[in-house]
Amino acid sequence: MLPSSRDVRLLPKAHLHLHFTGSMRPATLLELADKHGVHLPDALTGGEPPKLRATDERGWFRFQRLYDIARSCLRTAEDIQRLVREAAQEDARDGSGWLEIQVDPTSYAPRLGGLVPTMEIILDAVESASRETGVGMRVLIAANRMKHPLDARTLARLAVRYADRGVVGFGLSNDERRGFARDFDRAFAIARDGGLLSAPHGGELAGPGSVRDCLDDLHAERVGHGVRAAEDPRLLSRLAERGVTCEVCPASNVALGVYEKPEDIPLRVLYDAGVPMALGADDPLLFGSRLADQYDLVRSSHGFTDAELAELARQSVRGSRAPDDVRRRMLDGIEDWLKSE
Protein backbone atom coordinates (compact mmCIF):
# COMPACT_ATOMS: atom_id res chain seq x y z
CA MET A 1 0.00 0.00 0.00
CA LEU A 2 1.22 3.49 -0.82
CA PRO A 3 2.13 5.65 2.22
CA SER A 4 -0.83 7.98 1.70
CA SER A 5 -3.61 5.76 0.43
CA ARG A 6 -5.48 4.69 3.55
CA ASP A 7 -9.18 5.56 3.57
CA VAL A 8 -9.62 8.71 5.67
CA ARG A 9 -13.22 7.67 6.36
CA LEU A 10 -11.85 4.83 8.44
CA LEU A 11 -9.61 7.17 10.45
CA PRO A 12 -11.17 7.82 13.89
CA LYS A 13 -11.55 11.53 14.50
CA ALA A 14 -13.49 14.13 16.46
CA HIS A 15 -15.62 16.80 14.81
CA LEU A 16 -15.49 20.07 16.71
CA HIS A 17 -16.80 22.66 14.24
CA LEU A 18 -20.23 21.94 12.83
CA HIS A 19 -23.11 24.41 12.86
CA PHE A 20 -26.62 23.18 13.52
CA THR A 21 -28.63 24.25 10.45
CA GLY A 22 -25.50 24.02 8.30
CA SER A 23 -25.23 20.30 9.05
CA MET A 24 -28.45 19.60 7.12
CA ARG A 25 -28.49 17.33 4.10
CA PRO A 26 -29.55 19.19 0.92
CA ALA A 27 -32.27 16.61 0.27
CA THR A 28 -33.64 17.14 3.76
CA LEU A 29 -33.78 20.88 3.20
CA LEU A 30 -35.85 20.35 0.06
CA GLU A 31 -38.25 18.01 1.86
CA LEU A 32 -38.69 20.29 4.87
CA ALA A 33 -39.22 23.32 2.65
CA ASP A 34 -41.96 21.45 0.81
CA LYS A 35 -43.47 20.28 4.09
CA HIS A 36 -43.67 23.79 5.54
CA GLY A 37 -44.36 25.71 2.34
CA VAL A 38 -41.07 27.61 2.37
CA HIS A 39 -39.95 29.02 -0.98
CA LEU A 40 -36.25 28.36 -1.47
CA PRO A 41 -34.06 30.50 -3.72
CA ASP A 42 -32.41 28.86 -6.70
CA ALA A 43 -29.06 28.88 -4.86
CA LEU A 44 -30.43 26.27 -2.44
CA THR A 45 -32.19 24.05 -4.97
CA GLY A 46 -29.66 23.64 -7.77
CA GLY A 47 -28.02 20.45 -6.53
CA GLU A 48 -24.65 22.20 -6.21
CA PRO A 49 -23.29 24.34 -3.37
CA PRO A 50 -24.20 28.01 -3.86
CA LYS A 51 -21.58 30.40 -5.17
CA LEU A 52 -20.44 32.31 -2.12
CA ARG A 53 -17.95 35.00 -1.23
CA ALA A 54 -18.07 36.67 2.16
CA THR A 55 -14.99 38.86 2.14
CA ASP A 56 -17.18 41.93 1.66
CA GLU A 57 -20.33 42.96 3.52
CA ARG A 58 -22.66 42.19 0.62
CA GLY A 59 -21.23 38.69 0.24
CA TRP A 60 -21.59 37.97 3.95
CA PHE A 61 -25.18 39.21 3.89
CA ARG A 62 -25.98 36.80 1.05
CA PHE A 63 -24.39 33.90 2.91
CA GLN A 64 -26.29 34.75 6.08
CA ARG A 65 -29.55 35.14 4.17
CA LEU A 66 -29.24 31.66 2.66
CA TYR A 67 -28.48 30.24 6.10
CA ASP A 68 -31.49 32.01 7.63
CA ILE A 69 -33.81 30.69 4.93
CA ALA A 70 -32.58 27.15 5.53
CA ARG A 71 -33.04 27.60 9.28
CA SER A 72 -36.65 28.71 8.75
CA CYS A 73 -37.43 25.19 7.51
CA LEU A 74 -36.77 23.75 10.99
CA ARG A 75 -40.11 24.27 12.69
CA THR A 76 -41.01 21.21 14.77
CA ALA A 77 -39.42 18.86 17.26
CA GLU A 78 -39.50 16.17 14.56
CA ASP A 79 -37.51 18.42 12.21
CA ILE A 80 -34.87 18.95 14.90
CA GLN A 81 -34.70 15.24 15.64
CA ARG A 82 -34.23 14.45 11.97
CA LEU A 83 -31.47 17.02 11.52
CA VAL A 84 -29.52 15.78 14.55
CA ARG A 85 -29.95 12.12 13.62
CA GLU A 86 -28.77 12.70 10.06
CA ALA A 87 -25.81 14.81 11.21
CA ALA A 88 -24.72 11.93 13.44
CA GLN A 89 -25.21 9.44 10.61
CA GLU A 90 -23.05 11.52 8.27
CA ASP A 91 -20.34 11.81 10.91
CA ALA A 92 -20.43 8.07 11.56
CA ARG A 93 -19.86 7.44 7.84
CA ASP A 94 -16.88 9.80 7.95
CA GLY A 95 -15.20 8.06 10.88
CA SER A 96 -16.15 10.56 13.55
CA GLY A 97 -16.47 9.03 16.98
CA TRP A 98 -17.24 12.33 18.69
CA LEU A 99 -19.27 15.33 17.51
CA GLU A 100 -19.69 18.70 19.22
CA ILE A 101 -22.46 20.50 17.33
CA GLN A 102 -22.90 24.25 17.72
CA VAL A 103 -26.26 25.95 18.03
CA ASP A 104 -27.79 29.33 18.84
CA PRO A 105 -31.12 28.24 20.34
CA THR A 106 -32.64 31.73 20.05
CA SER A 107 -32.95 31.10 16.31
CA TYR A 108 -35.37 28.21 16.86
CA ALA A 109 -37.07 29.23 20.11
CA PRO A 110 -39.96 31.24 18.58
CA ARG A 111 -41.28 28.14 16.79
CA LEU A 112 -40.47 25.63 19.53
CA GLY A 113 -41.97 27.33 22.57
CA GLY A 114 -39.03 29.25 24.01
CA LEU A 115 -35.38 28.75 24.93
CA VAL A 116 -35.86 26.03 27.53
CA PRO A 117 -38.19 23.85 25.41
CA THR A 118 -35.81 24.31 22.48
CA MET A 119 -32.84 23.08 24.50
CA GLU A 120 -34.84 20.14 25.82
CA ILE A 121 -35.74 19.14 22.26
CA ILE A 122 -32.17 19.52 21.01
CA LEU A 123 -30.58 17.63 23.89
CA ASP A 124 -33.13 14.82 23.69
CA ALA A 125 -32.39 14.57 19.96
CA VAL A 126 -28.64 14.49 20.63
CA GLU A 127 -29.03 11.72 23.20
CA SER A 128 -31.17 9.62 20.86
CA ALA A 129 -28.90 10.15 17.84
CA SER A 130 -25.81 9.27 19.83
CA ARG A 131 -27.41 6.08 21.09
CA GLU A 132 -28.58 5.13 17.60
CA THR A 133 -25.33 5.83 15.70
CA GLY A 134 -22.64 5.23 18.31
CA VAL A 135 -21.21 8.71 17.74
CA GLY A 136 -20.66 10.52 21.02
CA MET A 137 -22.40 13.89 20.82
CA ARG A 138 -22.39 17.07 22.84
CA VAL A 139 -23.54 20.65 22.27
CA LEU A 140 -21.91 24.07 22.23
CA ILE A 141 -24.26 26.99 22.67
CA ALA A 142 -23.13 29.97 20.61
CA ALA A 143 -24.08 33.60 21.05
CA ASN A 144 -24.46 35.87 18.03
CA ARG A 145 -21.99 38.74 17.99
CA MET A 146 -24.46 40.76 15.90
CA LYS A 147 -26.82 40.88 18.89
CA HIS A 148 -26.57 42.71 22.22
CA PRO A 149 -24.08 41.31 24.76
CA LEU A 150 -26.93 40.97 27.26
CA ASP A 151 -28.43 38.34 24.97
CA ALA A 152 -25.14 36.48 25.17
CA ARG A 153 -25.28 36.51 28.98
CA THR A 154 -28.75 34.95 28.84
CA LEU A 155 -27.41 32.19 26.62
CA ALA A 156 -24.37 31.66 28.84
CA ARG A 157 -26.63 31.11 31.85
CA LEU A 158 -28.75 28.73 29.76
CA ALA A 159 -25.63 26.84 28.72
CA VAL A 160 -24.51 26.45 32.34
CA ARG A 161 -27.98 25.25 33.29
CA TYR A 162 -27.59 22.36 30.87
CA ALA A 163 -23.95 21.55 31.59
CA ASP A 164 -25.01 18.25 33.14
CA ARG A 165 -27.25 17.39 30.19
CA GLY A 166 -24.74 17.57 27.35
CA VAL A 167 -23.72 21.21 26.87
CA VAL A 168 -19.93 21.36 27.01
CA GLY A 169 -19.01 24.78 25.67
CA PHE A 170 -19.90 28.34 24.84
CA GLY A 171 -19.11 30.09 21.56
CA LEU A 172 -19.50 33.33 19.65
CA SER A 173 -20.39 33.21 15.98
CA ASN A 174 -21.41 35.35 13.01
CA ASP A 175 -19.26 38.00 11.30
CA GLU A 176 -16.13 38.38 13.41
CA ARG A 177 -15.42 41.73 11.74
CA ARG A 178 -18.36 43.26 13.61
CA GLY A 179 -18.22 44.42 17.20
CA PHE A 180 -15.58 43.65 19.80
CA ALA A 181 -14.87 40.38 21.56
CA ARG A 182 -14.46 42.24 24.84
CA ASP A 183 -18.13 43.23 24.73
CA PHE A 184 -18.92 39.57 25.41
CA ASP A 185 -16.39 38.99 28.18
CA ARG A 186 -19.01 38.80 30.92
CA ALA A 187 -20.98 36.14 29.06
CA PHE A 188 -17.86 34.03 28.64
CA ALA A 189 -16.96 34.50 32.30
CA ILE A 190 -20.38 33.12 33.25
CA ALA A 191 -19.81 30.12 31.00
CA ARG A 192 -16.29 29.48 32.29
CA ASP A 193 -17.42 29.76 35.90
CA GLY A 194 -19.98 27.08 35.05
CA GLY A 195 -17.24 24.75 33.82
CA LEU A 196 -17.82 25.25 30.10
CA LEU A 197 -15.24 25.41 27.33
CA SER A 198 -14.61 28.81 25.72
CA ALA A 199 -14.69 28.44 21.94
CA PRO A 200 -15.37 31.74 20.09
CA HIS A 201 -14.93 32.29 16.36
CA GLY A 202 -11.97 34.33 15.17
CA GLY A 203 -9.27 34.46 12.54
CA GLU A 204 -11.16 33.68 9.36
CA LEU A 205 -12.90 36.77 7.97
CA ALA A 206 -10.87 38.95 10.33
CA GLY A 207 -7.12 38.74 10.75
CA PRO A 208 -4.84 37.57 13.54
CA GLY A 209 -5.96 40.41 15.80
CA SER A 210 -9.34 38.73 16.16
CA VAL A 211 -7.61 35.59 17.43
CA ARG A 212 -5.64 37.61 19.97
CA ASP A 213 -8.90 39.17 21.13
CA CYS A 214 -10.37 35.69 21.64
CA LEU A 215 -7.40 34.77 23.81
CA ASP A 216 -7.10 38.03 25.75
CA ASP A 217 -10.75 38.97 26.23
CA LEU A 218 -12.58 35.63 26.17
CA HIS A 219 -9.84 33.27 27.42
CA ALA A 220 -10.43 30.95 24.49
CA GLU A 221 -9.42 27.31 24.88
CA ARG A 222 -10.38 26.66 21.27
CA VAL A 223 -10.81 29.11 18.41
CA GLY A 224 -13.37 28.60 15.68
CA HIS A 225 -11.31 28.79 12.47
CA GLY A 226 -8.21 30.67 13.67
CA VAL A 227 -6.39 29.97 10.44
CA ARG A 228 -5.26 33.56 9.92
CA ALA A 229 -3.13 33.31 13.03
CA ALA A 230 -0.58 32.08 10.48
CA GLU A 231 0.02 35.74 9.59
CA ASP A 232 1.56 36.43 13.02
CA PRO A 233 4.51 34.23 14.12
CA ARG A 234 4.30 35.43 17.73
CA LEU A 235 0.62 34.53 17.87
CA LEU A 236 1.39 31.09 16.46
CA SER A 237 3.90 30.54 19.24
CA ARG A 238 1.36 31.63 21.81
CA LEU A 239 -1.30 29.24 20.49
CA ALA A 240 1.19 26.38 20.41
CA GLU A 241 2.50 27.05 23.91
CA ARG A 242 -1.01 27.22 25.36
CA GLY A 243 -2.26 24.25 23.36
CA VAL A 244 -5.20 26.24 21.98
CA THR A 245 -6.88 24.19 19.26
CA CYS A 246 -7.88 25.95 16.05
CA GLU A 247 -11.00 24.48 14.47
CA VAL A 248 -9.84 24.82 10.87
CA CYS A 249 -12.46 24.41 8.10
CA PRO A 250 -10.58 24.32 4.78
CA ALA A 251 -13.54 24.00 2.40
CA SER A 252 -15.36 26.96 3.92
CA ASN A 253 -12.17 29.07 3.84
CA VAL A 254 -12.15 28.71 0.06
CA ALA A 255 -15.93 28.89 -0.44
CA LEU A 256 -16.11 32.20 1.42
CA GLY A 257 -13.17 33.67 -0.46
CA VAL A 258 -10.75 33.88 2.46
CA TYR A 259 -8.30 31.99 0.26
CA GLU A 260 -8.55 31.60 -3.50
CA LYS A 261 -7.72 27.92 -3.60
CA PRO A 262 -7.07 25.10 -1.11
CA GLU A 263 -3.33 25.27 -1.63
CA ASP A 264 -3.32 28.85 -0.33
CA ILE A 265 -4.62 27.91 3.12
CA PRO A 266 -1.61 28.08 5.51
CA LEU A 267 -2.23 24.67 7.06
CA ARG A 268 1.44 23.75 6.93
CA VAL A 269 2.36 26.95 8.72
CA LEU A 270 0.06 26.13 11.62
CA TYR A 271 1.03 22.46 11.70
CA ASP A 272 4.77 23.12 11.62
CA ALA A 273 4.40 25.76 14.34
CA GLY A 274 2.85 23.14 16.63
CA VAL A 275 -0.61 24.73 16.75
CA PRO A 276 -3.20 22.01 17.45
CA MET A 277 -5.84 21.78 14.73
CA ALA A 278 -9.20 20.07 14.49
CA LEU A 279 -10.49 19.91 10.94
CA GLY A 280 -14.19 20.73 10.65
CA ALA A 281 -16.88 20.91 7.98
CA ASP A 282 -18.49 24.13 9.28
CA ASP A 283 -21.68 24.23 7.15
CA PRO A 284 -21.83 21.27 4.73
CA LEU A 285 -25.24 22.38 3.46
CA LEU A 286 -23.70 25.53 1.97
CA PHE A 287 -20.13 24.40 1.34
CA GLY A 288 -20.82 20.97 -0.13
CA SER A 289 -18.32 18.88 1.82
CA ARG A 290 -18.34 16.99 5.10
CA LEU A 291 -15.72 15.97 7.61
CA ALA A 292 -13.75 13.30 5.77
CA ASP A 293 -13.57 15.58 2.74
CA GLN A 294 -11.49 18.02 4.79
CA TYR A 295 -8.90 15.30 5.42
CA ASP A 296 -8.91 14.40 1.73
CA LEU A 297 -8.36 18.07 0.88
CA VAL A 298 -5.43 18.36 3.28
CA ARG A 299 -3.90 15.23 1.78
CA SER A 300 -4.37 16.24 -1.86
CA SER A 301 -3.65 19.98 -1.62
CA HIS A 302 -0.96 20.05 1.05
CA GLY A 303 0.70 16.65 0.77
CA PHE A 304 -0.02 15.54 4.31
CA THR A 305 1.09 11.94 4.81
CA ASP A 306 -1.03 9.36 6.56
CA ALA A 307 1.11 9.82 9.68
CA GLU A 308 0.38 13.55 9.60
CA LEU A 309 -3.33 12.99 9.00
CA ALA A 310 -3.31 10.65 11.99
CA GLU A 311 -1.72 13.39 14.07
CA LEU A 312 -4.45 15.83 12.98
CA ALA A 313 -7.01 13.27 14.10
CA ARG A 314 -5.23 12.94 17.46
CA GLN A 315 -5.28 16.71 17.85
CA SER A 316 -9.01 16.76 17.21
CA VAL A 317 -9.55 14.15 19.92
CA ARG A 318 -7.31 15.95 22.41
CA GLY A 319 -9.10 19.24 21.72
CA SER A 320 -12.52 17.72 22.36
CA ARG A 321 -14.52 17.40 25.55
CA ALA A 322 -14.90 13.67 25.06
CA PRO A 323 -14.67 11.54 28.24
CA ASP A 324 -11.35 9.83 28.91
CA ASP A 325 -12.56 6.39 27.88
CA VAL A 326 -13.83 7.71 24.55
CA ARG A 327 -10.53 9.50 23.96
CA ARG A 328 -8.52 6.37 24.68
CA ARG A 329 -10.68 4.29 22.35
CA MET A 330 -10.35 6.79 19.53
CA LEU A 331 -6.62 7.26 20.00
CA ASP A 332 -6.16 3.49 19.94
CA GLY A 333 -8.23 3.38 16.76
CA ILE A 334 -5.97 5.97 15.14
CA GLU A 335 -2.95 3.78 15.85
CA ASP A 336 -4.75 0.79 14.38
CA TRP A 337 -5.54 2.83 11.25
CA LEU A 338 -1.87 3.64 10.81
CA LYS A 339 -0.94 -0.04 11.14
CA SER A 340 -3.54 -1.12 8.59
CA GLU A 341 -2.49 -2.33 5.14
Describe the structure using short key phrases:
alpha/beta; 341 residues; three-stranded parallel beta sheet
Describe this structure in words.
The protein has 341 residues and is α/β, with parallel strands linked by helices. It has helices at 26-36, 57-71, 77-93, 109-112, 115-133, 149-161, 185-193, 208-218, 233-242, 250-255, 267-272, 284-287, 291-302, 306-318, 324-339; strands at residues 13-19, 96-103, 136-144, 167-173, 197-198, 201-202, 222-225, 245-247. A five-stranded parallel sheet has the order 1-2-3-4-5. A three-stranded parallel sheet has the order 6-7-8. Strand 4, helix 7 and strand 5 form a beta-alpha-beta unit. Helix 3 packs parallel to helix 5 and helix 6 (149-161) runs parallel beside helix 7 (185-193). The radius of gyration is 19 Å and the shape is globular. The N and C termini lie close together (6 Å). The model has no long low-confidence stretch (mean pLDDT 95).
Describe the protein's topology.
Elements (H helix, E strand, L loop, with lengths): L12 E7 L6 H11 L20 H15 L5 H17 L2 E8 L5 H4 L2 H19 L2 E9 L4 H13 L5 E7 L11 H9 L3 E2 L2 E2 L5 H11 L3 E4 L7 H10 L2 E3 L2 H6 L11 H6 L11 H4 L3 H12 L3 H13 L5 H16 L2
Parallel strand pairs: 1-2, 2-3, 3-4, 4-5, 6-7, 7-8
Q: Give the DSSP E fraction (strand runs of 2 or more residues).
A: 5-15%
Q: Write down the oligomeric state.
A: single chain
Shape: globular
The total of helices stands at: 15
Low-confidence stretches at least 5 residues in length (pLDDT < 50)? none
Secondary-structure-derived class: alpha/beta
Radius of gyration over all CA atoms, rounded: 19 Å
Q: Biggest sheet: strands side by side, in what order?
A: 1-2-3-4-5
Order of helices and strands: EHHHEHHEHEHEEHEHEHHHHHH
Overall pLDDT, averaged?
A: 95
